[in-house]
Structure formats: structure tokens, C-alpha cells
């Protein structure tokens, strides 16, 4: 059973065909094809309200062409593939791993003993902040 999404404008009962979202950092309103899923902070608009859309002073409206194919485009599939690749990539450590206390050394080899976590310390390492200090 398919539920038709309606225009987000008050008292408008027309079916939605566009989705409006805002990029606040760029002062941009983006009006594109109807999103596949209802997203928070996005507004579904009918054709009439999409045509009449204006943005506040200093803002830009970007109107993306309507999707007439009815399926995902090559850009959508490429974006999905890139997201899967990114998720599969191992995280980069921002801090060296294996901090400990050197107990014995023979030539170029070292024996390192792990420090026990300090009780109540969020990072589990005594005397070390959660993040490395930032250069001023």
C-alpha cells in the first residue's frame, strides 16, 4: 500500500513532488526531486508551492531538475558506493596506540608494561587528557 506524501504547506492537499532543504552554512535553500524517504528538517512541496518558492534576502535558491526516470540515477549509485567504501575503511587513529611504561630494554627492543586505568578517569589513562593538546 503506497501512501502519497502531501505538500508540507498548511492547508495544501496537493501531492508533493519536490523536497526543500536548507544548507545554513552556505545560506542556501535547495529544492530538488522528492526524496525517497521523509527526512526531518526537510519539507515536501507540491509543484505550485515549489514554483513560488523564494528565499530570504542574502540566501540563494538552488533548483535541481526533477527526477523523471523514477529510479536511482548514476550519481545516487556512485554516492552509495562511495559511502560503502568509506564505511569499510578502517578508522585513522588520531593518537598513538600502545602507550605504556618501558620496563626493560635490550638493543633496539623494548618491554613495555601497560598503565592500569585510573579509576574515574574518562580516558582510562592517568595524567592524559581525552584529546591531545592543540597548538596555540
Structural commentary:
The chain is 15% helix and 24% strand. The chain is α+β, with helices and mostly antiparallel strands. A hairpin with a 2-residue loop joins strand 5 (100-106) and strand 6. It starts with 17 loop residues before the first strand and ends in a 22-residue tail after the last strand. 7% of the residues are buried. The model has no long low-confidence stretch (mean pLDDT 77).
Write a short abstract of this structure.
The protein is α+β, with helices and mostly antiparallel strands and 136 residues long.
Q: Topology of this protein?
A:
Elements lengths: L17 E6 L4 E6 L9 E3 L1 H5 L8 E4 L10 H15 L11 E7 L2 E6 L22
List the main descriptive attributes of the protein structure presented here:
136 residues; alpha+beta; single chain; 15% helix
Low-confidence segments: none
Distance between the termini: 59 Å
Classification by helices and strands = alpha+beta
The coarse silhouette is elongated
**What order do the strands of the largest sheet run in, or round the barrel if closed?**
3-1-2-4
Number of helices in the DSSP assignment? 2
**Share of β-strand residues:** 15-25%
Total strands: the figure is 6
The helix content is 10-25%
Quaternary structure annotation: single chain
Q: What's the story with the biggest beta sheet?
A: 4 strands, mixed
The chain-level mean pLDDT equals: 77
* SSE series: EEEHEHEE
Amino acid at each position: 500500500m503506497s501512501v502519497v506524501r502531501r505538500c508540507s504547506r498548511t492547508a495544501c492537499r496537493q501531492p508533493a513532488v519536490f523536497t526543500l532543504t536548507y544548507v545554513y552554512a552556505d545560506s542556501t535553500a535547495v529544492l530538488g526531486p522528492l526524496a525517497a524517504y521523509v527526512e526531518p528538517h526537510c519539507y515536501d512541496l507540491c509543484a505550485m508551492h515549489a514554483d513560488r518558492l523564494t528565499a530570504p534576502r542574502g540566501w540563494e535558491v538552488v533548483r535541481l531538475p526533477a527526477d523523471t526516470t523514477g529510479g536511482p540515477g548514476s550519481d545516487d549509485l556512485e554516492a552509495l558506493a562511495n559511502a560503502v567504501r568509506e564505511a569499510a575503511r578502517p578508522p585513522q587513529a588520531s593518537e598513538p596506540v600502545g602507550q605504556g611504561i618501558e620496563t626493560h630494554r635490550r638493543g633496539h627492543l623494548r618491554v613495555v608494561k601497560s598503565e592500569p586505568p585510573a579509576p574515574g578517569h574518562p580516558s582510562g589513562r592517568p595524567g592524559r587528557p581525552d584529546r591531545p593538546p592543540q597548538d596555540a
